[in-house]
Structure formats: C-alpha cells, structure tokens
Amino acid sequence: xxxxxxxxxxxxxxxxxxxxxxxxxxxxxxxxxxxxxxxxxxxxxxxxxxxxxxxxxxxxxxxxxxxxxxxxxxxxxxxxxxxxxxxxxxxxxxxxxxxxxxxxxxxxxxxxxxxxxxxxxxxxxxxxxxxxxxxxxxxxxxxxxxxxxxxxxxxxxxxxxxxxxxxxxxxxxxxxx
Length: 177
Known about the structure:
This protein is mainly α. It has one domain (4-158): Ferritin, core subunit, four-helix bundle (Ferritin), CATH 1.20.1260.10. 70% of the residues lie in helices and 0% in strands. Helix 1 packs antiparallel against helix 2 and helix 3 (85-110) packs antiparallel against helix 4. The longest helix has 30 residues, at 4-33. The radius of gyration is 17 Å and the shape is elongated.
C-alpha cells in the first residue's frame, strides 16, 4: 500500500492534471475561435494527454489500495489578450506541474515508499518533455504573433502527433484514449 501522505498528495496531483486538461481545452477552443486549427488541435491533444496522466494516477491508487478522490476543479482561464497568452499560460502550468511531480517524488522518498517513488519517475521524464515542448512553442508564437500562419506551418512541420504509445507509461484507469 502506498504511504498515506503520498496518497493524499497524489490525489491533489490528480486535481492538477484534470485542471490542466480543462485549461488546455479552453486554450484549444480559443484557437479554434481564432481559426488557428493546428494550434487548436495541439491543445486538444494536450488535454487528452493530461486526462490520461490523471487516469494513470487513479490506476496507481487503485492498484496500491489507496483512496481515490476525484476532485472538482476551478474554471479555466478562457479570455486571452492575444495568441501568445494561452501558450505562455501553458508553459507556466507545465513548470508548476514539474515542481509538483518533483515534490511528489520527494514525499515518496521521505516516506520510504519506494514503489510510489518509482511510479513518479515516468512523470518526471514526461515533464522535461512537456516544458521543452511548451518553451519551444512559446518562442515560435512570440516570434510569429503578427503572422500566425507561420505558427500553423511550424506545427505541421515540427509537431506531427505520434500515434505510437510509450511502452514505459503507467497504465491508465479505463484505458488511455
């Protein structure tokens, strides 16, 4: 069984993942409204990824006999000053989640909960990728904010979604979408 303190913090992280999902849907809807379909598609896919992260955490709690608390989340930000703002918000969010996952790993280590610490390792690796992706996208969006079609071209060229699943990813409750 996972350490009680880890279970509590993982349930908090589940809330963060679902909140990120909602924020990414809001970002996608904003870009859809701006007729920027590649940016919209990118954020819709990110929303699914965040949902799957939450469900991986749910499955871990189920597998380790931990209590699962599916939380409500605050409403996402839906009004943006310009096309840069949603990506800047996403990068801030990914940096915050990186800190949260690192803290979660530290709690597992402090509690000598080695199985839970091992579970967090995949998420730490994932966060390095997420921050790098959002950081690169923000650079492109900032440079091309006056010509948004350059951003769309960049996404077509550089960010083609891979349909290949990561075999090292933890299983998600209900299966990943």
